[in-house]
Amino acid sequence: MHSHMDITEKLIHWYSANKRTLPWRGEKDPFRIWLSEIILQQTRVEQGLPYYLRFISTFPGVHDLCRAPESQVLRLWQGLGYYSRARNLHKAARQIVHLYDGVFPSSYKELITLPGIGDYTAAAIASIAFGEPQPAVDGNVKRIISRLLDMEENMNSAKTYTRIKDTCRELMGHHDPGTFNQALMDLGAMQCVPKNPRCTLCPLQDHCLAFKENTVAERPVRYKKQKKKIRHFNFLVIETDRNGCSYVYLEQRKHKDIWTHLYQFPLAESTGLWDESTLPGELIKIFPKQKAFTIKAISPPYKHLLSHQTIHARFFKIQINKDARMESNSWISIPREDITLYAVPRLIEQYLEKEF
Ligand code: SF4
Known about the structure:
By secondary structure, the protein is of the alpha+beta class. It folds into two domains: 215 residues, Endonuclease III, domain 1 (Orthogonal Bundle); 126 residues, Alpha-Beta Complex (Nucleoside Triphosphate Pyrophosphohydrolase). Helix 2 runs antiparallel to helix 8, helix 9 packs across helix 10 and helix 9 packs across helix 11. It is 41% helix and 15% strand. The chain binds iron/sulfur cluster (SF4). Iron/sulfur cluster (SF4) binds next to helix 9 and helix 12. The site of iron/sulfur cluster (SF4) has 15 residues, from helix 9 and helix 12.
């Protein structure tokens, strides 16, 4: 059994021999560390690097950034995207000047109150610039820890996040927090990468449970949000005249799904909505016993959002001569004006209000 000490020492040893050379490496100026972290939040290192250099030459310190008009900051940011990062950068610089007299706050607790600085960035600045023992947990770190511990948990849950952070805290021990965090960042960027991690060269291989169990490719487990099912409903608003009275047809939903027991116009579900070109062919299939039908109106498509499905619907108003109940024994015919007596889904209600 290996102790945490072994893992951390191996990690830091690996880092000192293999770390990336980056302009902000070895940097203790919190302003520069902050800038690099914000730029790298949604940007690759190679893309962010020239921006970092341009920013620090234009704004060598927090006072310079504070004094600059927002438009200048945004212009310098151009091409990086996610402009809220630039706006928050500027806002935070103003707060540091006005609330902290231009002295960069030195604790995680203060840092996290600044605009654009979340848990990860606050921990990164506090640990690298001020040596505060705060694990900085980003996607890279989550991936490494989930593999080291062969975690099956959902990576998006708060509980998992806490477990990962606690593990990092334990691993960090009394090592230099900034070095520890940066070593994990580099391991995630260079060795324990998302696809095909280089396990054979990894300093932590002996400790890695996913490697041992041969589950590396499955870690971290990604629980995809269930994709919304898309359905297409063609409603037939069938009208007939009998004894001088106009009738329409309804059916009751029986299935244990959406709208159980509610009434609806006879429904044909399809892979795409019918339209004026496909409707006649479909009607012939549905009404083999009808000699003639008249298409009176085709509604525009309706879109109805439910929690797990999106329904696209269209209503086809059709006039027929013979009683349509012979086509399906689940259809009932009701006088047109009685429709308000039946409980219908919201989607049909909308149609009734607008077009019936
Ligand atoms: S052995 Fe492979 S999966 Fe495990 S930490 Fe190293 S690179 Fe990542």
